Amino acid sequence: MDYIELESTAALADHVCSPVSLRGNVSNMPWQHMIDYRKDYPEIVYFDMDGDQIVLYAKTPITGGGL
Description:
Elements: E1 4-6, E2 20-22, E3 25-26, E4 43-49, E5 52-58
Parallel strand pairs: 1-2
Antiparallel strand pairs: 3-4, 4-5
């Protein structure tokens, strides 16, 4: 499977439902975000990329600092 590598949040909306690879770090300081608990994606991770922070929902734990 080919992944599109993204280094900023600016292009995320252009790749909804596409396989992407994100360049950034799992955050050790979560900002305030509205989150939605989803049964199929129980793991919630705060992710810093290019000065922004997003929330990732995953089926399995995402570990490590830098990805």
